[in-house]
Amino acid sequence: MEKEPIYVEKIIPGGEALGQLKNGKKIFFWNALPKETVINYQIIKNKSNYTEAIATEIADISKYRIKPKDNCFLSTSPWQIFDYSYELKTKQELVKEIFREHEIDIIEPIIITDKRDYYYRNKMEYALYWNNSINKIELSFHERGSHRKIPIKKSSIERSEIFDYALKVVQELNSKHEEAREYQSLLLRCNQKGEISGGLYENKKPHPSFNNLTDRILEKKYFYSPNGFFQINLPVYEMALNEIKKYITTEKVLDLYAGVGTIGLSVASDKKLTLVECDKFAYKELANNYKNTLKKEHLDIVLSKSEEALNYIQPSQTVILDPPRAGCDRKLIDKINEIKPQTIVYLSCNPSTQARDIKLLLDNYKIINIKTFNFFPHTPHIENLVVLSL
Asked: How many whole angstroms separate alpha carbon 317 and alpha carbon 305?
């Protein structure tokens, strides 16, 4: 049956383009831009109240559409079709819209980028594809919305050292006549010097331990595991840390959701600093980085969930928040409102939960700075920084 043409209205939080069927049902498109008309599409999810699809034929092509670099772009970086300036503008508008949905009026935030929109990721995980026509393994990604693998010849969002190394791993597997079904994936990470660590995950076997990497962030040395949590785009991360550092004016600082310590130790190691982390693997790396700090007699590291470390919140303190996508636990927000520390620095990978949390703080706090950082070019992901003062 021929599909009805669908006019694309706008980009929504989450990164898809919004359209609507004649019956009123919403349809969310990948590979479509506002003001385009989708003539044909492939449905990847069909629910009673919405459909998710990939646009495959388009009329009224947007002036902001560009040709993607990679055949795998829908799997890795679906905004490769966006002109980069248009991407930055779209992310600014989305942050403003998200905060407005939570009844918070903000000016359109400044968006910060190092202008390097490709070859920026320092970590990538590949699937392995068995090509029956040549009886060889190829690198691949999973097709968006399915478990089908797409073999790739190139990928442009990770650093070139990673992709080149991945090709060598596959070449070695093929020289040994290995089969793709023996392996779950290939995980690789590199530091800013281009040194590589990581390797293959084998099916039905425990994940191996990989050699730690080291990197310098704001002149401080950090140790981290390739398969642990560490920032993906370090040059832009440093730009965010320099912005955060401007607001560390109190003598006492509490870094919640501290991870391996890269925020607190980078911006406040000269303060009376407490870092709280609940993941035992991240905490182990945090402990290593703590030991590497020259003046650590005024530092304290705590293995705990942030919402269970409420006694560390004090007045006349700066609290740093960098929670997972789910945002902060309500108990933590309530405790901040009760104790009223001087400054809250909130860095978030999910502006929707960030705005939700900030809404609950605005009886006691005002927003004094908001900036958006493009950690993940050509993807819908947004990293947003909000600073609140008592």
From this structure: 19
78 in any annotated domain: no
- What CATH number has the domain bearing residue 251? 3.40.50.150
- Distance between CA atoms of 74 and 54, rounded to whole angstroms? 9
Distance CA 15, CA 157 (A): 17
Any idea what DSSP says for residue 101?
H
User: What is the CB neighbour count within 10 angstroms for residue 20?
Assistant: 14
Same domain, 173 and 37: no
Q: In this structure, are 311 and 247 located in the same domain? A: yes
Report DSSP state, residue 158.
B
The pLDDT value recorded for residue 1 is 54
- How far, rounded to the nearest angstrom, does the alpha carbon of residue 198 sit from its chain's CA centroid? 20
Is the distance from CB of 143 to CB of 150 less than 8 angstroms?
A: yes
Do 172 and 279 lie in one domain? The reply is: no
CA nearest 111: which of 84, 134, 141, 138? 84
- Residue 2: the pLDDT is 63
Mean pLDDT, the chain cut into blocks of 10 residues (390 residues total): 86 96 94 97 93 96 97 97 98 97 94 97 97 95 92 96 98 96 96 97 91 93 90 97 97 96 94 95 91 76 94 97 96 98 98 98 97 98 97
319 and 187 both lie in a single domain: no
**Same-domain status, 104 and 250:** yes
- One-character DSSP codes across 160-184: HHHHHHHHHHHHHHHHTT--GGGEE
Per the domain annotation, does 56 fall within a domain?
yes
> What range does the domain containing 194 cover?
123-213
**Rounded-to-integer distance, Cα 315 and Cα 81, Å:** 48
The answer to whether 182 and 202 are in contact (CB under 8 A) is: yes
271 within 8 A of 299, measured Cβ to Cβ? no
- 320, β-bridge pairs: 255, 345
Pair (247, 360) in one structural domain: yes
Task: Give the domain CATH number at 19.
Answer: 2.40.50.140
Residue whose C-alpha is closest to residue 246's, from 371, 109, 349: 371
Helix or strand holding residue 124 (H, E): strand 123-131
